[in-house]
Structures are given as C-alpha cells and as structure tokens.
Amino acid sequence: AVEKVLFVKVMTDEQMEILRSQIAVYATISEQLIEMHKIITAYQDSLSGMKLSGIYVDPLMASGGHKLTARQRWTPTSVQLQMLETIFNQGNGAPSKQKIKHITIELSQHGQISESNVYNWFQNRRARSKKMQKMAALPSNSESEIETDEDSPNEKKLRPDKNVPVTIRSDPIYNMQISAEVHLLDQTQGIYQLNGSSKSCGSLDQMSYANVLSTPRLDHLMDKF
Amino acid sequence: AVEKVLFVKVMTDEQMEILRSQIAVYATISEQLIEMHKIITAYQDSLSGMKLSGIYVDPLMASGGHKLTARQRWTPTSVQLQMLETIFNQGNGAPSKQKIKHITIELSQHGQISESNVYNWFQNRRARSKKMQKMAALPSNSESEIETDEDSPNEKKLRPDKNVPVTIRSDPIYNMQISAEVHLLDQTQGIYQLNGSSKSCGSLDQMSYANVLSTPRLDHLMDKF
DNA sequence: GTTGTATGAATGAAGG
DNA sequence: CCTTCATTCATACAAC
C-alpha cells in the first residue's frame, strides 16, 4: 500500500469537503435540468398530439422546443426567442426592414418564421419593455393588508373570501443578455480550481439537450469527454 | 511529510480522471440549465401585473425554507367579482384607463387587486361573453367541423421545425398539468460560480437562477464519490 | 393525489 | 406608437 501513495493525488479534508459541496451543487443543478427538460418535452409532446405510449421518437427535438398544433399563431422556438432577445438587448432600436429580413433568414434556421413575425415581435417586445419599466417605477401597490403567514388566531382554513396571502417573486430584471456559450472545465487543470476557472470550449450546439439529458444517469455521458 | 499522508484522502490517477470527467459533465449540463432557465423565464416571465403587496420575500430563505412561490394568480374575492360583474353589465364596453384606475381603487377596498387585474378581467370577461353568445346562437351542433389539420396550401401554415423531419401528430391533446415547484438551493452561496466568468450575463442572473433550483436529495449522487 | 375545468395572464397579430 | 382581440398557457380549485 505504501507504494501506491506515490501514484495518487492527495487532498485535505477541507479540500475534499469543498469538492463534495461543489459536486453536490452540480448534481442538484443537473437533476433539475433533467427535470425541467422532461417537463417541457412532455408538455410539448402533448401539444403536438404525440402519444407518449412507448414511442421512442427522435429524442433530438429538444433544442427547438415548441409545438404549434397546426393552428395559426406563430410561436418562437426557444432558440429563436433567445436570439431575438439577444438582438433586442443589443440595444439597437427598431430594426430596419433590411435588418428584419436578415434576422428572419437567420432565425429560419431554427424554425418556421416570417418577417412579419419578427416585426411584430420587436414591436411587442418594445411595448412590453416600456410597460415593465413603468411598472418598476411605481410600485402600483394597492392594498397592503396582508397578513403574514403567521398563524393568526381563529383563522379558518376555509376562507369564504378567496383572500389569500401571497408572495411574489422579486424578479425586477426581466431579461438579460443570453449567452449560448457553454463553458467546460479545462480537463488539464486540477480539481482545486474547480470554482473559478472554466474555459470556453466554443459552441456545443451539436450537443443538444436531448443528447445530454436523455440519460437519467449522468454517468452515461462520461464517454463524451 | 509522512505524517501528512494520514490526514488526506487519496485517489488514483484513474479515479481522478473520472472525477474530472464527471465534474466536466456537471459543469456543462449546469450551464445549459442556466441557459434554459433564462430562456424560459424570458419567455413567460413578463409584466405580470401582479404587483401584489407583501413583497416579503426573504432573499436568503432561511434554512428550512423553500417555497419561494412561483407564479401567483390573482383571484377575485366574491365581493370584487360581484362588483365587476355589475360594472360589466352596466354595458359600457372596454373601460378607459382612467376608469380602470378608479375601479381598481374601489375594489381594493375589498381585497388585493391591481389595475392589470381589472384590465385583464374585463378583457377576459368580454371574450367569455362573446363566446357564450356564439354558443347560445347555435345549439350544440354535433358539428363535423373537425379540424383535422388538413394542409391548406396556404403557406401561412406553420410547422414545428424544419429540422424535425417527421412528426406525426394526431389530434392535439389539451391541457397538461405541469407543476414546476420552485425552491431554493440552500447551500450554494459561495460555491456556485458558474456564471462568475460569464461576461454577458446580467447581474440578477444568479438570483433568479437560484430561485429555480430545488434541492432534492443529492445523497444518492454523492455516494458516487 | 389525480383529473377536469374555469379563468387569470401572456403574447402574437391587427387596426388605427 | 397604442389599443384591442384571439389564442394559448398556466394555475386555482373542485370533483373524484
């Protein structure tokens, strides 16, 4: 056993603890991702009328989540939405006609879309942005007679009035620049630098969600690296 | 140096390599989760008029806590509903902004409410009214107006995704219950830094991100290490 | 706790 | 731009 020591790396308990924590976080996040993916795809599958019954359909429909039941309204795919948001956040106001055309072409790589869709989207997005800003400015708070979920005496659980105490999420910032970049840990660095150093490996587009998520057990993904 | 060995854990190079790979996988997946979350929230999260009072949201959400509520939905109290119906039946169509403001103030005497709630209510009420009328007009005609998405030559028709070759769809299934509980990750502070180096992300990033993660049991995942 | 349904809210599109 | 409407999405709640 003594010889073996020569060929191994060592960690202090503290380092080990840090590592464990980090891994736990990753595990949690990853599980959550998988959950989300399941929920979303299940939902979208149902919308497209797919029977879930034992159909091992191409699991690669992940990236372009969307449905469209053959009715009218256009619905941006997640990729499209992301791109639109990115462009919007680039600051340039109303895109020119030329710009719109270009955007449309770009986005059509990721799903059905037309110029008017793009046009409308920007139009609506601008309006939304403005409204949000206004809302953020003045906290149009009406009544403030909420009772903390502190158990008030004699409070019956069956409220005749549907007056329920509520909490809202504080999500002031609506959206932000979205980066499609995926960072990977540099395989050559030590685990001690786990926390800070990551290296961009460029786009991992090929690795769609489906590819990543189709495995409940993350171990199965190991061979990708 | 010899003594030190007693206080550290050891790993073989192979184990180390496996660990590194696993972590790389987690990192990648986690990045994608964040990506996904951003897209989703950007998509659905918007100007919800839910500026309900009691923004009492503990950013830290003490230990046992979780339950940072997800989307909240206003529910009119019976009194409010009655008043709204009364106003609606008064005939005057879409209330002006001024009118809405006034109504809101009035109704806030009987419970939580915001202007957008009122606005939406009238909007939906009008739609419902119209639909009801239409329904009353032609009694339940066992209409064979089956909307089998017979492909109209009209290219306004939208397709799911050009990249998805064949997706056979039958009749769309309506309504699919999705419950995505929102919890807080409780131990991530200081450890989670995935976004730390991402230059293109807004400041609130991590916060909203944390809101979406839940902390399931990681034990079984931890066991691998 | 599952499923169904009513309805509040989000948003693409149209009209002005 | 702004407002309105149609459609879709999601949630509260009831019925089982």
From TrEMBL, chains A, B:
<dbReference type="GO" id="GO:0005634">
    <property type="term" value="C:nucleus"/>
</dbReference>
<keyword id="KW-0371">Homeobox</keyword>
<feature type="domain" description="Homeobox">
    <location>
        <begin position="67"/>
        <end position="132"/>
    </location>
</feature>
<feature type="compositionally biased region" description="Basic and acidic residues">
    <location>
        <begin position="153"/>
        <end position="162"/>
    </location>
</feature>
<dbReference type="GO" id="GO:0003700">
    <property type="term" value="F:DNA-binding transcription factor activity"/>
</dbReference>
<feature type="region of interest" description="Disordered">
    <location>
        <begin position="130"/>
        <end position="162"/>
    </location>
</feature>
<dbReference type="GO" id="GO:0006355">
    <property type="term" value="P:regulation of DNA-templated transcription"/>
</dbReference>
<dbReference type="GO" id="GO:0003677">
    <property type="term" value="F:DNA binding"/>
</dbReference>
<protein>
    <submittedName>
        <fullName>(wild Malaysian banana) hypothetical protein</fullName>
    </submittedName>
</protein>
<keyword id="KW-0539">Nucleus</keyword>
<feature type="DNA-binding region" description="Homeobox">
    <location>
        <begin position="69"/>
        <end position="133"/>
    </location>
</feature>
<keyword id="KW-0238">DNA-binding</keyword>
